[in-house]
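Sequence design from tokenized structure. All designs in this work follow the same two-part layout: the structure record, then the generated sequence. An example of the structure record is given first.
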């Protein structure tokens, strides 16, 4: 295989993103592996590979990759949320809830709040009488 250039890595990253969107996580992983080998500090590539591992049901690999992202970017709400989904899928709901709550605290999006099981601020259910 010829030596890869930085430009080739950018092309591979973008192609991997497209493969992931087309539901080909294994193809995305194949493209991202050499990118991350050449640029292990590239958090965007690691996050994309973590998502690909998750979609390929390679949960342990996804978990490890999301953890690397969070070591570098502890305030990355999406990485906390995605790690939580990974842990949930792996049958570890208590660990998942912790990361869902961190995601919701960092970025109070409706889907993050719902997953964190925080009560809505308005329209709370309940009945009185």
């Amino acid at each position: 295989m010829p030596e890869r250039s930085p430009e080739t890595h950018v092309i591979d990253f973008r192609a991997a993103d497209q493969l992931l969107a087309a539901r080909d996580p294994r193809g995305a992983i194949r493209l991202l592996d050499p990118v991350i080998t050449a640029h292990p500090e590239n958090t965007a590539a690691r996050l994309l590979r973590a998502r690909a591992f998750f979609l390929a049901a390679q949960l342990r690999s996804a978990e490890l990759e999301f953890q690397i992202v969070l070591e570098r970017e502890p305030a990355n709400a999406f990485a906390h949320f995605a790690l939580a989904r990974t842990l949930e899928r792996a049958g570890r709901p208590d660990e998942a809830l912790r990361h869902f709550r961190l995601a919701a605290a960092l970025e109070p999006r409706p889907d993050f709040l719902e997953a964190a099981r925080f009560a809505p601020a308005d329209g709370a259910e309940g009945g009185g009488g």
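Confidence is low (pLDDT under 50) at residues 123-129. We note this feature because it recurs in several other targets discussed in the main text.
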